[in-house]
Amino acid sequence: MKPLAVVTGASSGIGAEFARQLAERGHPVLAVARRDERLAELAAAAQAAGHAPIHAMALDVTAADAPARLLARARELGGAGWLVNCAGGARLGRFIEGPPEPHAAQVRVNCEALVALSGPFAREFAARGDGVILNVASTAGFQPTPEFAVYGATKAFVIAFSEALAEELRTSGVRVTALCPGPVTTEFFDVSGATRVRRAPAHEISAAACARFGIEAAERGRVIAVPGAGNKLLAATAGLFPRALVRRVAGRIGLQSLGYARS
Predict the structure, then answer these.
(1) Looking at domain 4-258, does it have CATH number 3.30.160.20?
(2) Which residue is catalytic, options 18, 125, 142, 151?
(3) Most Cβ neighbours (<10 Å): which of 72, 163, 210, 249?
C-alpha cells in the first residue's frame, strides 16, 4: 500500500480534490478540516468507490496543539509519506476597509499553521529519507496584489518558504513543491468578503484539474508548479520589470484579475 497522505483544508475545493485523488491513487488519506460533516462525506464516498480509505480528523490547524495531534494521529495510521498544506483563507478588498482581524487570520492559517505543521513532518520525512511536502501557494505570490494585499503576501511567503525548504532538504530524499495556481473554481470567492459581481475569467481552472496538476508535479519533484501557460508566463516575467511598474500595473488591475467588475 502507498504511504499515508495528510491533507489539510480537505473539506472543500482543492483540498477535497487532493484527498479524493490521492485515495484514488492508492494513498490512505488523513483528511483534516474543521467541518467534520464534510470530511465524513468524503470518507464515505472513498469507501463506496473502493478507493484507499480516507480518515477524517476535525481540527483547527491554527490551534497550538495541532501539529502534535496531527503527527500523533498520522503515526497511529502507520506514518505519513505526504503532507499537503492546503488549508487557507482569503479576505478580498482594500486593506483599510473593514476590520483588521480577517486579514490577521489569513496570516495565521496561510503562513503560521503551514510552518508549524511542516516542521515535525519534515523532520520525520528527512529521518526516513523519503516524503513529499506539497504547499498550496498562488500566482498571487509572484507580485504585489493591491485589493487582496495580505492574501498575496501570504502566498509570496509560501513560495519563498517552500523553495528554501526544498533546497535545505535537497539531498535528504524529501521533495517540496509549491503549487501556484491562478483562479480556481471553489468556495474561495464565496467566503472572501468581496461584494462586487464576479464572472470566472477564461483562465480559471477546476479544483480537480488543479489538484491533479499539483500531485503530478510533486511526484516529479518540481519545486515550483504553475498550471496554465498564461500563469507560467506571469510567474516567469513578474521579476523582469521594475518593481514600481509592477506595482502600478497590479494596482490598476486589482480584483479584475480574479474576474471581479471594476469598482
Answers:
(1) no
(2) 151
(3) 210
